[in-house]
Write a structure and sequence with these properties.
Layout lengths: L20 H9 L15 H4 L1 E3 L16 E2 L3 E10 L2 E8 L4 E9 L5 H14 L7 E7 L2 E7 L5 E2 H6 L5 H20 L12 E3 L5 E3 L4 H6 L1 E3 L2 H18 L23 H4 L5 H10 L17 H10 L52 H38 L22 E2 L4 E6 L22 E2 L3 E2 L12 E20 L4 E7 L15 E9 L2 E21 L7 E2 L2 E10 L2
Antiparallel strand pairs: 1-11, 2-3, 3-4, 4-5, 5-7, 6-7, 8-9, 9-10, 12-21, 13-16, 14-21, 15-20, 16-19, 16-21, 17-18, 17-19
Helix pairs in contact: 5-7, 5-10, 7-9
Length: 578
């Protein structure tokens, strides 16, 4: 199974990526600490008290593989980190049918005891602002820590890759993170690894912190002044959110560092339009060698001081929703003059309603004669019209009398009214299986995850390095075939892909097909081959009659690190039973 090998990946939580092992090694060779970009020669730690303990003697990581079960419950699915004798996995809790994360290391690892203690202390906190530790166990010469997995959350690393955050979002970030860390330190817990990949933003706009105490224990990071270390880390996160730059000279977490030799400069000198109040908070939280003196404000030394300062700020409102003006009406003869137009600057509003006075009436003899002629014609026209109307009414009354007084009004009744089409209903899927074209198949044991009704479980491909077409191991890609049990009228297909950007198509097998296993056995093209969004839905004008539906993937999207991975979370087929 393809794996990632990274030296500064925030272990295993949602697969977040940081500098690679080669980058981390280069940073170390250059004398840079990959946590905060500072010199690693021992000259700076007296400022913040943080220490990265010397790496222990090499300990072989447990030889585990996808499909291995822990405690007959947690099935390992994908290794996302392997570093310093420990590994981190995405796994499935088969008892509760949900995805979880697992950190694994040998019981005789020098850090095993510290990791267990950190995990158990973190679990006791029970604060929902932190990704929760669910289990911490020593069993069969292994130590493993199980924690929540949030598939729908987005790492701050990914958000910053798109650009700096707007002021209200940056305010929410520093407010929520500083308050959460204040609560943790009150219970004697420190993080010491507050990097952009340790911060997750949920779909509801809440920020959650992963790896409390555990990430530092896995790497052997300690600090004599943990509150100051975490406060500076929050300041670095805020600085990065405002500027899209890492506040040290070294590049880190996908962000460019500051220019070399200039030191720490205020956020509004890095990028125009930065909220000044938030920028000053970031400077006061960072250990900046007296840079705050120009602002006559003391530096923050604890998360609580930072949280109180954030709360004391004037409220930063969210941006107003964009307003789209309605299209202008086509001007007609009724919109002459200034009616319906904006009032010119400096003019009273009443001028908008000014009406051009009518011309003066004709006063000559010819004019008077013309008026009388027009009046006479109008009288004659009215008389003729009245006479015709009276005749029509009399005729209708007579016709009504001939019919015994019944009203001669009837409603035409025809059968031309179209009948309402019965809406499509979900069709029962009896089985899902992986199909491979020219290859050995991709994780066939996980095919059932695509039809179990749980979007948190999925059929996920391995991570292929450098080759988007399944590492060039599957000749024509791979995919999932769902069996409807019998031939049905398929009119709609809903697919929740594991990630967006996969090149995919949907096909139906011939009605008479039985267990089709080749691309030619699916001749009915349902959708064309194209890059698909994460949520994909197609409704057919003409239903397709088939028993087997193929979700065919030919190319996988780049995961941002030179690797390629994809998959399918959930498949629904709708139609009308035959």
């Amino acid at each position: 199974m393809a794996e990632r090998s990274t030296a500064a990946v925030d272990v295993a939580d949602n697969g977040g990526d940081e500098p690679s092992a080669a980058q981390a090694a280069k940073a170390t060779a250059d004398g840079v600490d990959t946590q905060n970009g500072r010199a690693a020669d021992g000259s700076m730690p007296e400022t913040d008290g943080e220490r990265i303990n010397p790496a222990p003697a090499p300990v072989a990581a447990p030889e585990l593989h996808s499909g291995h079960k822990l405690a007959r419950r947690y099935r390992l699915e994908e290794c996302v980190t392997r570093l310093d004798g420990f590994s981190s996995w995405r796994a499935m809790d088969e008892k509760l049918r949900r995805a979880v994360g697992v950190h694994l290391l040998p019981a005789d690892h020098p850090r095993a005891r510290a990791v267990l203690a950190a995990a158990r202390s973190s679990a006791l906190l029970g604060d929902p602002r932190f990704v929760q530790v669910l289990d911490a166990v020593e069993e069969n010469d292994l130590v493993y820590v199980v924690h929540e997995w949030l598939p729908d959350a987005t790492e701050l690393t990914s958000l910053l890759a798109l650009g700096p955050l707007e002021a209200h979002e940056a305010y929410q970030l520093v407010s929520q993170v500083s308050q959460a860390m204040t609560a943790a330190h009150r219970e004697g817990l420190a993080h010491l690894r507050l990097t952009p990949s340790a911060i997750l933003r949920t779909s509801s706009g809440q920020y959650r912190i992963r790896g409390l105490a555990v990430n530092a224990a896995l790497r052997g990071i300690t600090s004599d002044t943990p509150q100051q270390a975490d406060t500076e880390a929050v300041g670095a996160l805020l600085y990065a959110a405002l500027t899209q730059r890492w506040p040290y000279e070294s590049d880190a977490y996908g962000l460019a560092g500051l220019p070399k030799g200039v030191g720490l400069i205020a956020p509004d000198q890095v990028r125009a339009g930065v909220h000044r109040g938030l920028g000053e908070l970031a400077m006061r939280a960072l250990a900046n060698d007296g840079a705050t003196a120009s602002r006559q404000e003391p530096a923050f030394t604890t998360p609580e001081e930072l949280a109180k300062a954030v709360a004391a700020m004037p409220r930063i409102r969210p941006p107003e929703p964009a307003f789209t003006a309605p299209p202008e009406y086509q001007q007609t003869t009724y919109q002459q003059g200034s009616y319906g137009r904006p009032t010119p600057m400096g003019l009273p509003t009443v001028q908008n309603h000014a009406v051009t006075p009518p011309p003066a009436p004709l006063q000559s003899r010819t004019g008077r004669a013309l008026k009388w002629s027009v009046a006479a014609l109008l009288i004659v026209a009215l008389g003729l019209g009245s006479w015709q109307l009276a005749g029509t009414l009399l005729g209708r009354n007579n016709q009504g009398g001939n019919n015994g007084g019944e009203t001669n009004t009837q409603t035409d009744s025809t059968d031309d009214t179209p009948k309402k089409t019965e809406p499509a209903k979900p069709l029962k899927i009896t089985r899902a299986r992986v199909i491979a074209f020219g290859g050995s198949g991709v994780k066939p044991e996980a095919a059932g995850n695509t039809v179990d009704g749980d979007a948190s479980s999925a059929w996920v491909t391995p991570r292929y390095q450098n080759y988007p077409k399944f590492g060039n191991l599957e000749e024509n890609g791979s995919g999932i075939v769902v069996d409807l049990g019998s031939v049905q009228n398929v009119s709609e297909i809903d697919v929740d892909f594991y990630v967006a950007g996969q090149r995919a198509e949907m096909r139906g097998a011939a009605p008479e097909a039985s267990a089709p296993d080749s691309l030619s056995a699916f001749p009915q093209q349902i959708t064309k081959l194209e890059k698909a969004n994460k949520k994909f839905q197609t409704t057919l004008d003409t239903p397709v009659r088939t028993r087997y539906v193929l979700i065919h993937i030919t190319e996988l999207p780049d995961d941002g690190t030179g690797g390629y991975r994809g998959g399918i979370s959930e498949i629904k087929v709708l139609g009308r039973p035959s």
